[in-house]
Every structure is written in C-alpha cells, then in structure tokens.
Amino acid sequence: MTAFRLGLVHAPAMPFTREHRIDFDLLGRVIDFHRRHGAEALAVPLHVAESVSLTESEKQAVVEFAVERAKVPIVAHVSEAGSARAAALAQHAERAGAAAIIATTPYYWTPPPAMLLEHFALIGGAVKIPLFVHNAPDDMAGARVTAELMVKLIGRLETFAGLIDTSLDWQFMIELMTLAKKARPEFQLLAGNELMVSAAAIGATGMVSSLAAVAPRLVRALYDSCHAGKLFEARAAQERMASLRHAMKPGGAPQLKAAMRALGRDCGDPRPPLMPVDAADAKTLSRALDTLLADEPRGW
Amino acid sequence: MQNKFRGVMQSPVTPLKDDFSLDLPTFERLLDFHVRTGAPAISWPHHKAESLNLTLAERKLFAEAAVKTVNGRVPVTIHVSALAVEDTFALARHAQDIGADGILAITPYFWNPAREAIYDYFVRLATSIDLPVISYNSPSYLAGVEITGELMARLIERLPNFVGVKEASFNSEKFLEISRAALKLRPDFAMLTGVEYLLPSVPLGGVGSYSAAGSICPNLCNATFEACMAGDWERARDLQYKLSWLWLLFRDQYPSSLKGGMVMMGRNVGPTRPPLPTATKERQAYVRGQLEELGILDSEPYGW
C-alpha cells in the first residue's frame, strides 16, 4: 500500500473555451505535453487548475479523462469544504483509477486541529488508495496543519502516505519529518512548488510543479539534482527557478495561463471570478520569459 | 575573501544571581566555555540573553566584559538592538569604543516601519560607526517587518560595512531571495540563520548560524555545520533533526527552558528575568529527559 511513491509530479493548468467550458481537446494536448516533458505523475485538478471553480461533475470528468489519457499515475485533488463531499470525490477518483488522492484543509471553515483530524480521516478512510495532505497556508487563509496533527493522522489512517508542503517553513518541515518518520518510516515529504533544495535537504523526495508547463527542462534539472542529493549543484537551477517565480508573481492560474500563451501553448483565460492578466502585464511577462527560458520548448 | 563571521557562532545567555542581578563571574566562565568548545565567534546580548530586559548600563558593562574575556581569541560582535533607536546608536558607538569586532542590529521594534524607514535606519546606524554591521531579519517576531532582497541589495550598495544577515524567517523563499540579492553584489556576504537551521540554508549559500543550543551541545553544533559544508546530507539530516528538536524544546518563552537545561548540564546560570518565567524543577527534569533521549548527556561536556 504505502509502497506508492511520488517523485516529479506535474500540476497541469485547466484549458477553457471562450465560453468558459472545459476544453477537453486542449486538455488532452496539455496532458500529452506534460507526459512528454518529464511528468512521472499528474496531479489534477489542483488550485492552479482552478479546481475551486469546477463543478462536481466537471472534477469527476477531468479525473476520468486524465486517467484515460495520461499513461502515468493520476493523483486526484479532492478538496472540498464539506468532509463528505470530499470523501465522495475521493471514492469517485478511486473508481476512476486514480493512484492516490490529495486533500487540503477544508475551505472556508476556520478549522481547529480536532476538526482537521476528522476531516482528513473521513476523506482518507473512504478509499483504499493513499492520501497526501496538502499544507498550503497561503492558499487557505492561513489554515495550516501541525506536525503533531499529522502524527495523529498517521495513527488513525493506514493509507496516509505523505505531505505536500507549500508553507516553505523549515521549522515545520523538520519537526514533521522527525516525528512522522518515527511513526511511519516510509512517510513522504514533497515540495509543493519549485523551491525544492531546502526541502530535499530536510528529506523531501518529490516535487509538485505547475511551472513544468512553462519550464519543463529547468524543473527536471532541479528535480534530478535534488533527487540525486546533489544539493550544492542544485543551487544554480534553484536560483534560475527563483527568477522565473519572481517574473510570474503573484503566481496562480492567471499568470500560468498568460505564460503558456506567451510560449505558444494557449489554454484560454481563467474562469471568473479570476481575471486574466491584463495586456500590459502579459507583455512584460512575455518579454521576461524570452530572456529566462531561451532553452525551453515553445508550442505543443 | 572569506567573511570571518561563519560557522555556528555562540551567543551566550546572561547569567543572573537569584535576585536577578548580573552574575559577572559566571558570565566570564560561560564566555570561556564557548571559546574552549569551538565557537568560531561570540555575539552578545541576543534576545536569548534577555537583551530587552537589561538596562543600557548593564548591556555596556557585559559588552566590555565579553570583549575583555574573549581577548581576541575569536571575533566578538555586540547586539545593539533596543526599543528606542537612539539607544541602539549609543550601544553601537559604545561597541566601537570598547574594541568589538562588529555589531548586530534588527529592524526597528514595534513601529512597523515602512521600507524606506528601515533603509534610513540602517544607513544612519552603519554610517555612524566604522565596524562591520550584521543585519537581523525576523519577520515572524516583528509583525511581518522584514528586509526584502531588494532592500538588502540597496543597503549593500550603499554601505561598505554591511557584511551579513542573521536571517530568522526560516523560510525557503525568503532566505533564497536575500541570498541571491546579496551574494551577487557581495560574494563574501555572510548568510547566517537565526538559530541552527543549517541543513536547509547551506545548500542555498548559507555559511553558518547563531546558536540556540550551543551552551548545551557545542559538539553537536559544530558537527552539524561540518556535515553540511561537506555535503554529507545523510549525516547532516540526523544531526539537524536533533538540533531542531532542541530548538522546539527551548523556543517557547526562550530562554527559560534553555537556562533550565543548562542546570542539567552542570552549568547553572541562574533565573530568567520577568516577564519570562524561570524554568521550574519539573521543567528542568523534563528537559533532562529529552537530552538523555537525544544522547546529549553522553556526547557533550558536563560542567564548566
């Protein structure tokens, strides 16, 4: 069960038509692009794929489509505000053939630790495939998990396989790994974005990357160095990645889609209430990418 | 050129008598302990030395004692941060007068200063003395006030004596942002973490740290630094996990539990000044149990 390990996971964007419907033809091309450019697994649909703007049936359709198309393991993102709703998505993902599920802290409710524990236990307990908890305080109005809570969840849930971190918090990550590795030696830590060097030093063995849609070679180079334990060598790639992240501030789906458009991989605009990057900013971004990404693929 | 501020530098606590007055002989003993157990530099009084609970006269008295006792064996820097900025300037001038090797200063307390105010503050401070200045970035303790990469670059360009940062965000992105900005302009700029978070910082250009646990386990501090600099990540990870566990043990109401732990290592430095509590006997025993579990009682020096 816990033998399932995640390495380099790509998090694709969600293409929409002009009418804001999911463009499945284009989604197929997006998935093919990621698979050809180094994805060992795909996480769908994460926040960067505007999961929160998708209906329940759309989320299910996306997971089914990805499983059919990808030929690499699919990790289904099942976060919801209500535990039962998230658990139902998890069950659907399992039936559809997903290899694992990802869940964040519940939306909107300001969750105390006991609520978080029950939430994750209900979601993970609804299926037999592994659960990865996504710790994303910046996305979740500051809601975060603690190391102590994760150890309790290990005690409750045999299938709790690891944590995807975007807090970037060294104190948390080290405390987590110190405690979690004692409770479950095969527990996995994954960097939830492309800042992997420090996480890898601490013990992270995977990375979830949305910028793989923009700079797949750089993502692969960074991941490979980290994975091989060549952390001093990884610094150059990490610094280039920091430049790219800086150019794409504040990040998220609008910037990702603007960057993809600039690189010849147009996925349409984000769904409202998200707004597309305005024309002037898109131009600035496009120029910055020309300089930063000379050796990255253009087009599909 | 290699910056002289590197490795796990020790910042002694402030030993107090039972009536909370300064205990000078024990302070001298502690300084000597740190130098003998391999501290590459000494810095006093950090927050762990209860800096903000000391009077200006007390800070000057012990700063002089530190310079005199260390006596050139390793560099001594003085932490000059005070609630009133004018006191900070006075402490900086004093540090220079007594022959210290540098000063350390945090962004101003309490007022949530704007970025330009932080810039002006460091420019005023660093141009008022000839000593090397190490800045101190601690956004989580100062309500988000921080030195960004851009601000750090401007300060380095403006100030030839701006030589390093005590970086206490403990965050991958913030550390990398400062390190990229600073090292491009000043390759020997010292990227130091606030306490011993060496493992995640050294691969990004870190060259050392200040220390929380050095008065408990100097050997562990130095071994962790060596393992990181050698790129021996497996070993570094084991050692770092232990050091970080100690930090979590000491972090709340710092340095109360640290002082309690020092009693258990045969190095009694007395109570902690209110409003911080003094570690109870029960807390001391709990800390001792943790030290035993980590193997520290067997691998680190006992007594002075």
What does it look like?
The complex is a heterodimer of chains A (300) and B (304). With 300 residues, chain A is α/β, with parallel strands linked by helices. Chain A has a single domain (8-230), classed as Alpha-Beta Barrel (TIM Barrel), CATH 3.20.20.70. Helix content of chain A is 46%, strand content 12%. Chain A contains eleven helices and eight strands. In chain A, 50% of the residues are buried. Chain B is built from twelve helices and eight strands. Chain B has an eight-stranded parallel β-sheet with strand order 1-8-7-6-5-4-3-2. The mean pLDDT of chain B is 97. The chains are: A alpha/beta (300), B alpha/beta (304). Chains A and B meet through helix 6, helix 7 and helix 9 of A and helix 6, helix 7 and helix 9 of B.
Describe this protein with a few key phrases.
heterodimer, A: 300 residues, alpha/beta, globular, B: 304 residues, TIM Barrel, 8-stranded parallel sheet, 11% strand
